[in-house]
Design a protein that fits this description.
Elements: E1 2-8, H1 13-16, H2 30-46, E2 59-64, H3 67-80, E3 86-88, H4 104-111, H5 125-147, E4 153-158, H6 160-170, E5 187-193, E6 196-202, E7 205-206
Parallel strand pairs: 1-4, 2-3, 2-4
Antiparallel strand pairs: 1-5, 5-6, 6-7
Helix pairs in contact: 2-3, 5-6
Length: 207
């Protein structure tokens, strides 16, 4: 069994301006970097880091290969004294095709609701879910090989749509509610056991 903590990357200028990012590689802004540091502080408390010397927190960290997730993971790793994060392409955000760079209001005018819209060139939701599950499986296997036999958590920094699909997969599409946003820097807890993903808590909601 492996405890997973999925974290949404910190804020970017496109997040601030409410523009669709998708696979477009937008860096963190200063607010996003501060969010990453705040997330690290919260994780330190949860993982018992306040009582441990630097580098002794029982966790490893990985991320998407997109800059906003990678830098968030690098900041968290530095704050917690963890090894540099490994990047996995499979953990990157959903590709939104023609919608990338478009503001949310314009998106709704052109295509409707973001969860049901048919956007040219966008990655199908089913493909995103399959990709995310496979990427998490690879990251967990790598983590276990590197840390066995010790018990250690795996911190995964990824993106809103991918994390949302992992929550939906783990709850038979019951959560999160339609229209609910996963905040930048938010943490969501899962357990990965026998190739099965179980949601423990997200954004303060315990299942």
């Amino acid at each position: 069994m492996t405890a997973l903590i999925l974290i949404r990357h910190g804020e970017t200028d496109w997040n601030r301006d409410r523009r669709i990012q998708g696979a477009t590689d937008i860096p963190l802004n200063d607010t996003g970097r501060a969010q990453a540091r705040a997330t690290a502080a919260a994780l330190r408390g949860r993982l018992g880091g306040a009582d441990r010397p630097a580098g002794a927190i029982p966790a490893t960290i990985v991320s998407s290969d997109l800059a906003r997730a990678r830098e968030t993971a690098e900041i968290i790793a530095a704050e917690l004294g963890l090894a540099a994060p490994r990047a996995y392409r499979g953990l990157r955000e959903r590709a939104y095709g023609d919608a990338e760079g478009v503001g949310l209001d314009e998106f709704r005018e052109r295509w409707g609701d973001s969860y049901t819209a048919e956007v040219p060139g966008a990655e199908p939701w089913t493909d995103l879910r399959t990709r995310g599950i496979a990427a998490l499986g690879r990251a967990v296997r790598d983590h276990r090989r590197a840390t066995a036999p010790a018990a250690s958590s795996l911190i995964v920094v990824s993106h809103g749509a991918l994390i949302r699909e992992m929550i939906r997969h783990a709850t038979a599409d019951e959560l999160p509610p339609a229209g609910e946003r996963l905040l930048n820097g938010s943490a969501h807890d899962f357990v990965y056991e026998r190739d099965h993903l179980r949601l423990v808590a997200y954004a303060g909601l315990v299942t």
